[in-house]
Structure formats: structure tokens, C-alpha cells
Design goal:
Strand content: 25-35%
Helix content: 25-40%
Number of helices: 5
Length: about 160
């Protein structure tokens, strides 16, 4: 083979490898994940997980304990990679999931996750012991996560968002 043929063949191989790597990266960024993968406490037994939620822009200091209904909605939700932002949604819910089992999930002691779900489909998840270092940004894949959570919130005594 001549040098020209070898160079063309090498360029084709490099181009194909770059295309494969690019497609893998794009697939991994766009693939849907279950929320339980981001917040392992949701997979725990209902006896050891506490879930608490607060809706905004309601200006109340009260939160509603949700129990297992809320946990199941969150656990079964699908999300896709979102865009990092410093501004949360105008209407949303802040959910704290507390895992009392300690190092069952690989963390010592009590672990709390903060999950923010917006009416616009915005979702962020972070461990409360390191909010900035662990926060990830997601988008609700089906677009109905906020509605399900809000209905559960109302059914458990939460105040209606005005």
C-alpha cells in the first residue's frame, strides 16, 4: 500500500472512532434515569425514610410530611440531563428525603437529600451535607412529576399554591 492509501485509511479509522466516542457521550448525557438512581435513599424501606415537602411561592413556614406515597412517586420518576442554572423555577416544591439507615447507602450516619421539582419540569438533586458540590440538574422526562407531587401534597394537608 502506498503512503497515501495508508493515510486515508488511518483518517477513516480515526473519523469512525471519533464518531463512536461522540455518540456514546451524547447517549450518556441524554439517556433517561430513574430519580432513585440519583437519590438512593428513595429505594430504602418505607420504615427508614422520611420525606418532607414544601411548595412555593406560598409564603408559609409549614412543611407536610408525605410518607410513602410521595416516596413512590419520586422513586418511579424518570429524568434526563438538564442545564445547570443558578435560578430555580418560579413555582415548585422542595423535597427533603432523609435516610435513617446510615451507611447502608455508603454514607455514615443520617443522609439527607434535597430534591427541587419545578412546575416547568426542572429537577435538581443534592446531598444536603454538600449542596454545591453534589447538586445535579435534570429535566422531568414525562412532564407530569410536579403535578403528581402537588396532588399528593394537597391530599396530605398541604396549602394550595396561589
Amino acid at each position: 500500500m502506498t503512503r497515501k492509501k495508508v493515510a486515508v485509511l488511518l483518517a477513516m479509522v480515526l473519523f469512525a472512532a471519533a464518531a463512536v466516542v461522540t455518540s456514546i457521550v451524547v447517549w450518556s448525557l441524554r439517556r433517561p434515569l430513574r430519580l432513585v438512581n440519583l437519590c438512593p435513599s428513595l429505594a430504602s424501606s418505607e420504615l427508614f425514610v422520611g420525606v418532607q415537602a414544601t411548595a412555593w411561592p406560598t409564603q408559609t413556614e409549614t412543611s407536610v410530611d408525605m410518607g410513602t406515597d410521595f416516596q413512590y412517586i419520586l422513586r418511579d420518576a424518570w429524568v434526563t440531563k438538564g442545564v445547570k442554572t443558578d435560578q430555580g423555577p418560579d413555582v415548585g416544591m422542595l423535597i427533603h428525603v432523609k435516610d435513617y439507615l446510615g451507611d447502608v447507602n455508603g454514607y455514615p450516619g443520617e443522609v439527607t437529600y434535597s430534591i427541587e421539582v419545578g412546575q416547568d419540569g426542572f429537577v435538581s438533586v443534592a446531598r444536603t451535607d454538600d449542596l454545591e458540590g453534589t447538586r445535579t440538574y435534570w429535566k422531568d422526562k414525562d412532564g407530569d412529576l410536579f403535578d403528581k407531587l402537588y396532588q399528593c401534597y394537597l391530599q396530605n394537608g398541604g396549602e394550595e399554591i396561589q
